[in-house]
Design a protein that fits this description.
The complex is a heterodimer of chains A (about 250) and B (about 230).
Chain A: H1 5-44, H2 49-64, H3 67-75, H4 82-86, H5 90-93, H6 96-122, H7 125-133, H8 138-168, H9 180-191, H10 194-223, H11 245-249
Chain B: H1 7-39, H2 44-58, H3 62-83, H4 94-120, H5 123-131, H6 136-166, H7 178-189, H8 192-220, H9 223-227
The chains are: A mainly alpha (about 250), B mainly alpha (about 230).
Chain lengths: ~250, ~230
């Protein structure tokens, strides 16, 4: 076996072009996915059966089938219907880029809705009761208490979901998109150096996931700051009038 | 829904998918147990190796693993074999490449599940095994492993669902699984939506069956909860 480092360096700029597309796909579909996931999770956490049923079926379908089927359903499946081909949406639906975005968004929305639902249900009941006691209406509660709290609770799990989405974005290469994997496959078709190119692509994926992990660690530190709060003892020489007996007891 | 006589093709694809998933599960469990044992061992090199394995594989897309093993695996194997003086051409088929890639990916996640389960088991269990005069290996197989199963099965069930869905990726390198066979049907009937929807429904049935089986296994692995009254 001959190992050619030269090929990696020669094609690295093109691989990086692919990496940008990968990051773009993850970012755009992640943002759309979150926007869809919030109403879905609120409906899923509802106690009314007829409100729960739609998000339940949606989440069950998208979590129970492979992402590859979902991409193919959007990209190839949409062209089966003449109504779609004649509609104004066709210029969007015939492009692999938008099909990938649609499929990834629908997929990640299902997974994140489930995460947010469990986060919403993990909020201590006392906090909701306190909000009620303050006289907040249901919509004010959702805006001020439920969503911000659920976001903080779901943040670590959502970080994992973004990593899974990054890994899933490699499937964009199956519908002719030149993302990181697609670019590597194109280069391999020309140079026939599969091990070198896939290794290089793999290292770029690892680097991107390391950045994402770091970003979420930082965000978690910001949003869940109360967990990292350290109580400092009151100084012994403090004026007795300023002492707070509740803090001193601790 | 009219399948236009392609139903048997999809069924044969389903059988291939099931075979691929179960084979990868078995091999992956071996990887997972080995990885967990290495992560918890006293040997620093083994720990380092297992950490490297899980970090690397969990950050790589499964599709990239499948492609690397399918297109690069034979090159790598031939290079290793030539070291032993074997110079014939070695080819890796899509099934073997699929099993290799999926079990490596499954094993990396299963390592973490097994490690957590093993750490849940109190040290006293090891010590009482020793007090009864069992060797470390015998304590592991008789006392620890049956309890590790009980703790690991919910996590492994989730991982198996992921594995089942990832089998679809092996169709990209030409394995005749559900995805591939529905593409064959589509090229004849020109009805992509119908057949991909049928494929999706087959996967839904398979994942639902897996959920049921996981719940059954949880009962089997936990005699204490099964036999308790109340």
């Amino acid at each position: 076996m001959t190992w050619e480092w030269g090929v990696i360096w020669q094609y690295l700029p093109r691989l990086m072009d692919g990496a940008w597309l990968t990051m773009e796909l993850v970012l755009v579909s992640g943002l759309i996915g979150i926007t869809m996931a919030i109403p879905l999770s609120l409906m899923r956490a509802s106690s009314l059966p007829w409100v729960k049923v739609f998000p339940f079926i949606y989440i069950y379908f998208f979590r129970g089938t492979p992402l590859l089927v979902q991409i193919f359903l959007v990209y190839y499946g949409a062209s089966q219907f003449d109504a779609v081909r004649d509609s104004i949406l066709w210029p969007i639906l015939k492009q692999p880029y938008w099909c990938a975005i649609i499929a990834f968004s629908l997929n990640t929305a299902a997974y994140s809705a489930e995460l947010f639902r469990s986060a919403i249900q993990a909020i201590p009941v006392g906090e909701i009761e306190a909000a009620e006691a303050m006289g907040m209406s249901k919509s004010v509660q959702v805006q001020r208490i439920i969503l911000p709290r659920a976001f903080g609770i779901a943040l670590p799990a959502y970080g994992n979901e973004v990593i899974l989405m990054l890994k899933g974005s490699a499937l964009a290469s199956t519908i002719t998109l030149l993302d990181l994997t697609g670019m590597a496959r194109t280069i391999i078709a020309r140079t026939y150096t599969p091990l070198e190119m896939f290794l290089a692509a793999g290292m770029v994926y690892l680097a991107i996931s390391a950045v994402i992990i770091g970003l979420f660690r930082f965000m978690e530190y910001r949003f869940n700051r109360y967990q990292y709060y350290h109580h400092t003892d009151t100084p012994k020489n403090l004026d007795p009038l300023l002492r707070d007996p509740h803090i001193d007891q601790k | 829904m009219d399948l236009q006589g392609f139903g048997h093709l999809l069924l044969s694809g389903t059988w291939v998918t099931i075979q691929l998933a179960l084979t990868s599960l078995l091999v992956g469990l071996v990887f997972g147990l080995t990885g967990a044992a290495a992560k918890l061992s006293k040997n620093r090199f083994a720990r380092w190796l297992a950490t490297g394995y899980t970090t690397l594989v969990r950050g790589l897309p499964e599709l990239l693993l499948v492609l690397t093993i399918y297109f690069g695996g034979s090159q790598l194997l031939m290079w290793i074999a030539s070291g032993f003086g074997y110079d014939e051409y070695i080819e890796i088929g899509p099934f073997v490449a699929g099993v290799a890639a999926l079990s490596i990916a499954f094993g990396a996640y299963a390592t973490e599940v097994f490690r957590m389960a093993m750490m849940e088991i109190p040290d006293g269990q090891w010590e009482s095994g020793m007090a009864c005069g069992m060797s470390t290996r015998r304590t592991f197989f008789r006392i620890i492993l049956p309890q590790v199963w009980r703790l690991a099965i919910p996590g492994l069930g989730n991982l198996f669902q992921v594995l089942l869905k990832d089998t679809a990726l092996v169709s990209v390198v030409g394995l005749n699984d559900i995805m591939r066979q529905s593409q064959v049907a589509i090229s004849a009937t020109k009805e992509p939506f119908t057949f991909f929807l049928v494929a999706a429904c087959i996967y839904l049935l398979l994942t639902a069956a897996t959920t049921g089986f996981t719940m059954f296994m949880e009962r089997v692995a936990n005699p204490a909860a099964r036999e308790s009254r109340g």
